[in-house]
Amino acid sequence: MIQSIPQPRFFRIVYNSYVFLFFAYLALPLLVVAVFAFNDSQFPSLPWDGFTWNWFFGSERPMIGVFHERSILRAIGTSAYIGFFVSILSVMVGTANAFLFNRYEFRGRSVLYVLMLLPLVIPGIVLGISILVFSSSLANYAWDTLEWDIELLRPGTLLVILGQFSFITTIATLVISARLQKFDRTLEEAALNLGADRLTAIRTITIPFLMPALIGAFVVGFLMSFENFNTTLMLVGSDAPLTIAMFDRLKEGSTPLLNAVSLMVMLGSTALALIMIFFQRRD
Amino acid sequence: MRSEHRLGFFLLLTPLLLWLSLLIIIPHVDILLVSLRERVGVGRYEFSPAQYLVFFGEPLYLWTFFRTATFSIIATVITLIIAFPVSYYIAKIAKGRTQSVLFLLCLLPFWVSELVRTFGWMILLRETGVFSNVLQYLGLASGPVEMLYNDVAIMTGLVYTSMLFMVVPLITTLESLDDAVVEAGYDLGGNALSVFWEIIIPHAVPGIVSGCIVVFMLSLGNYLTPIMLGGKDSLWFTELIYSQFIVRFNWELGAAFGIMLLVLSSFIVWIMLRLTEQTLEKTMGS
């Protein structure tokens, strides 16, 4: 089944059609979401009532487009805000972790490494409830003993950021570690021989080398945060990010407005992903 | 270690320890403790296994638990079967530009949120949806067909939504298989079937295991897909956790459910690793 081994014609045709069908299957749900964003009807379903841009730009009821729908715009803002902080935090902690595991041999290293991987095999909803329960315990304790009401420990943006950070950090650590392992440490030693101190050597030699991985980890973190649902669902307060806001609307029944938002999300995340891939390829 | 070295070590160790202890370890110990208590009065709790007794005493909870586990295993197997030929095609048969384009086409749908993907399936499957209309147009159905809100719809959604996490590790391991090894298999008298079972599959085991672990975890912990495609009575375990926490505000029972889900997922991951003699570091850490 490789090119150098000839296969019967019939087998090749079946195999190629299978692969083709697979890609059709991948594309189909996204395609219908995109197409019905332009349907001139109240429902994202057949019959097709004609083409319209109103679900993007419309400003009058019953067709209020995305750009005039305050709650959706606010939710996009919240998601971007959360994603930004989650990615920054994860990349910082992930870089520290990568250096720690790459540069130091110490007792308990392998135990810590397994613990670091653990968030990948904890269901997101369990991560969410455990952080919710723990922060509420802290908040209740502060109230019982000191009569402080710590609003920040109640469900809301801070908890969502911490909840997403708790597993996106693992991804960031893995992405950055993979690149750090390829780093030739003699380059750093050369900088030290030329009179640089450790920090300067790392800042001017190692960090620039790591840059594609840092950018990659940031973008992956942002996209994962933006689309996260399970952990966020348990920790969300009154200020819902986009996936939660869309879910609440979808439960009430859908209009092509949701298709329009989805199409924008698709284009946005595809663009980000392509930019990232382009960055990784360049070197 | 020199003192400068030591300082650097502790500076790097601190964020790791803070992250793991404050966001992973202590919170999980905390839900374990909450799950092991019973409310005996206003604000007064006692240590007791009551929540677990409720769980094991209520057939609906147990049924939902096993149903979720079985469905997740089936979804994992179906995903593997669908993904394997495609991964093999991309890793070994497609070359050059086609290969990178196909790989990219596999990745892109999954940068879009799960909500959007599931929404797409709703548009396809519902009574007024695309499939129903196509069937009527072709004369295969006389009236609208509801394909949403059943188990097949849940399965379709689960398989679709975790496909990428199977395809990527499979492609990675299959790419590292040297063509010469496959050729040698044929030279030594093997046929397509024996080469597949004795050379390709054994080589792909690490990828199969890591793909299966991730897909299983994602299915088991999924909330969106069963709710949206399966409707109100989808009987998915995460839904029970959600309703105890958010709707009924019974955190003790919800915590016990959470612990049960965690135990189940860890157990199945452990079994998979044991059966294939893999370790978590090897399958996840690469």
Helices and strands in order, then pairings?
The complex is a heterodimer of chains A (283) and B (286).
Chain A: H1 9-36, H2 54-57, E1 59-60, E2 63-64, H3 70-103, H4 109-117, H5 124-146, H6 157-180, H7 185-193, H8 198-227, H9 230-235, H10 242-251, H11 256-282
Antiparallel strand pairs in A: 1-2
Chain B: H1 3-35, E1 37-41, E2 44-47, H2 50-57, H3 59-93, H4 96-107, H5 114-125, H6 130-137, H7 151-175, H8 179-187, H9 192-220, H10 224-230, H11 237-247, H12 251-276, H13 280-284
Antiparallel strand pairs in B: 1-2
Helix pairs in contact in B: 1-12, 2-12, 3-7, 3-9, 5-7, 5-10, 7-9, 7-10, 8-9, 9-12, 11-12
List keywords for this structure.
heterodimer; A: 283 residues; mainly alpha; two-stranded antiparallel sheet; 11 helices; 72% helix; B: 286 residues; 13 helices; 2 strands; 77% helix; globular
Summarize the structure in words:
The complex is a heterodimer of chains A (283) and B (286). Helix content of chain A is 72%, strand content 1%. Chain A contains eleven helices and two strands. In chain A, strand 1 and strand 2 form a beta hairpin. In chain A, helix 1 crosses helix 11 (256-282), helix 3 runs antiparallel to helix 8 (198-227) and helix 8 packs antiparallel against helix 11. The longest helix of chain A is centred in the first third of the chain and has 34 residues, at 70-103. Chain A is globular and about 70 Å long. In chain B, helix 2 (50-57) packs across helix 12, helix 3 (59-93) packs parallel to helix 7 and helix 11 (237-247) runs antiparallel to helix 12 (251-276). Chain B is globular, with a radius of gyration of 24 Å. Chains A and B meet through helix 1, helix 3, helix 4, helix 5 and helix 6 of A and helix 1, helix 3, helix 4, helix 5 and helix 8 of B.
